[in-house]
Specification:
Number of strands: 3
Number of helices: 2
Radius of gyration: 15 Å
Order of helices and strands: EEHEH
Strand order of the largest sheet: 2-1-3
Helix content: 25-40%
Length: 71
Protein backbone atom coordinates (compact mmCIF):
# COMPACT_ATOMS: atom_id res chain seq x y z
CA UNK A 1 0.00 0.00 0.00
CA UNK A 2 1.39 3.37 -0.95
CA UNK A 3 -0.35 6.36 0.55
CA UNK A 4 -0.50 9.37 -1.77
CA UNK A 5 1.13 12.58 -0.64
CA UNK A 6 -1.37 15.14 0.61
CA UNK A 7 -0.65 18.48 -1.06
CA UNK A 8 -2.18 21.71 0.16
CA UNK A 9 -2.81 24.43 -2.45
CA UNK A 10 -4.44 27.62 -1.21
CA UNK A 11 -5.86 25.86 1.88
CA UNK A 12 -7.41 23.04 -0.17
CA UNK A 13 -6.20 19.45 0.24
CA UNK A 14 -5.36 17.28 -2.78
CA UNK A 15 -4.04 13.72 -3.01
CA UNK A 16 -1.13 13.25 -5.39
CA UNK A 17 -2.26 11.20 -8.40
CA UNK A 18 -5.82 10.93 -7.08
CA UNK A 19 -7.35 14.41 -6.90
CA UNK A 20 -4.28 16.33 -8.08
CA UNK A 21 -2.93 15.99 -11.59
CA UNK A 22 0.54 17.03 -12.71
CA UNK A 23 -0.46 19.88 -15.09
CA UNK A 24 -2.48 21.64 -12.38
CA UNK A 25 0.23 21.11 -9.77
CA UNK A 26 2.92 22.51 -12.08
CA UNK A 27 0.77 25.52 -12.95
CA UNK A 28 0.31 26.29 -9.26
CA UNK A 29 4.00 25.73 -8.57
CA UNK A 30 4.77 28.49 -11.09
CA UNK A 31 2.06 30.78 -9.69
CA UNK A 32 3.60 33.30 -7.26
CA UNK A 33 0.17 33.88 -5.67
CA UNK A 34 -0.34 30.19 -4.80
CA UNK A 35 0.35 28.91 -1.29
CA UNK A 36 1.64 25.34 -1.44
CA UNK A 37 2.50 22.84 1.25
CA UNK A 38 2.22 19.19 2.16
CA UNK A 39 0.72 17.25 5.02
CA UNK A 40 0.95 13.80 6.52
CA UNK A 41 -1.49 11.10 5.47
CA UNK A 42 -4.81 11.02 7.29
CA UNK A 43 -4.46 8.52 10.16
CA UNK A 44 -8.02 7.22 9.74
CA UNK A 45 -7.41 6.50 6.03
CA UNK A 46 -4.13 4.76 6.89
CA UNK A 47 -5.76 2.60 9.54
CA UNK A 48 -8.62 1.60 7.23
CA UNK A 49 -6.18 0.65 4.45
CA UNK A 50 -4.00 -1.39 6.81
CA UNK A 51 -7.05 -3.18 8.22
CA UNK A 52 -8.16 -4.06 4.66
CA UNK A 53 -4.68 -5.40 3.94
CA UNK A 54 -4.74 -7.55 7.09
CA UNK A 55 -7.98 -9.18 5.94
CA UNK A 56 -6.20 -10.49 2.82
CA UNK A 57 -2.74 -11.21 4.23
CA UNK A 58 -1.57 -12.60 7.57
CA UNK A 59 1.26 -10.05 7.73
CA UNK A 60 1.60 -6.43 6.75
CA UNK A 61 4.81 -4.44 6.96
CA UNK A 62 4.42 -0.69 7.45
CA UNK A 63 7.39 1.64 7.03
CA UNK A 64 6.53 5.07 8.38
CA UNK A 65 8.77 8.13 8.53
CA UNK A 66 8.61 10.94 11.02
CA UNK A 67 9.26 14.55 10.10
CA UNK A 68 12.60 14.25 11.87
CA UNK A 69 13.97 11.86 9.26
CA UNK A 70 12.10 12.89 6.12
CA UNK A 71 13.62 15.50 4.08
Amino acid sequence: IVFPLQVMINDRAYLEGVTLDQPYFLSQLKNPEAHLGSSQANSQDMRAALERALRTSPRVLAILLSSGVSG
